[in-house]
Design goal:
This protein is α/β, with parallel strands linked by helices. It has a single domain, classed as DHBP synthase, CATH 3.90.870.10. About 25% of the residues lie in helices and about 20% in strands. A hairpin with a 4-residue loop joins strand 2 and strand 3. The chain starts with a strand and ends in a 6-residue tail after the last strand.
């Protein structure tokens, strides 16, 4: 695991990150991430966390246009919620556009726009990132760089060391795939 500043990470190319995992602070917790289109790296996240393959990885985006490339259509209410709470701790599950190549899930896809200059700079440079908390599935998230390094240095290739504020409260998860909106997890944002 290489400890890097955001500035150092942003000097890499997208090709440099092929098959690689990055760890960086979001606005809620530290995330372990891979470029969303990188199947090999995304599979590495599942192995690192002992995560069920039936549990899709959410994507972090830096703008609403990135979401529109993946999803069928965005309901007016959902668009209003995106504009109101993004960037912020709201994850929204959408129906995926047919024909979109994405190994993460067959029919649905989840997006969140983090309120974090570090995370947004990484996404702006490299594209949407498949991201999840740094932990073994079912265990508490790890938000300390040294603890992350001790436990996952064999898995994570780069960890961003810039200081950041973390709320330590997970995002609220909203399911927008049906006829009505459903809160699956109440987190930082009360919708």
């Amino acid at each position: 695991m290489e400890r890097v500043t955001l500035k150092q990470l942003l000097q890499l190319s997208k090709e440099d990150l092929k098959g690689k995992l990055i760890c960086f602070p979001t606005d809620t917790v530290y995330g372990v991430a891979a470029i969303a289109s990188d199947v090999e790296a995304c599979e590495k996240i599942y192995r690192m966390k002992n995560r069920s393959s039936k549990k899709p990885l959410p994507l972090l985006c830096s703008n609403i246009q990135q979401v529109k490339e993946y999803v069928e259509n965005i309901d007016k209410t959902v668009e209003y919620l995106m504009e109101k709470y993004w960037p912020g701790a709201l994850t929204i599950i959408f129906n995926k556009k047919e024909g979109v190549a994405n190994h993460i899930s067959d029919k649905t896809i989840a997006f969140r726009m983090p309120n974090s200059k570090i995370a947004l700079a990484i996404i702006d440079k490299f594209s949407p990132m498949a991201t999840t908390s740094v932990n073994i599935s079912g265990e508490k998230e790890i938000n300390n760089i040294d603890e992350i390094a001790n436990k996952f240095s064999d898995w994570i290739d780069y960890i961003v060391t810039d200081e950041a504020y973390l709320s330590n409260v997970p995002s609220t998860v909203l399911d927008a795939t049906g006829n009505s909106l459903n809160i699956l997890r109440e987190g930082k944002i009360k919708v």
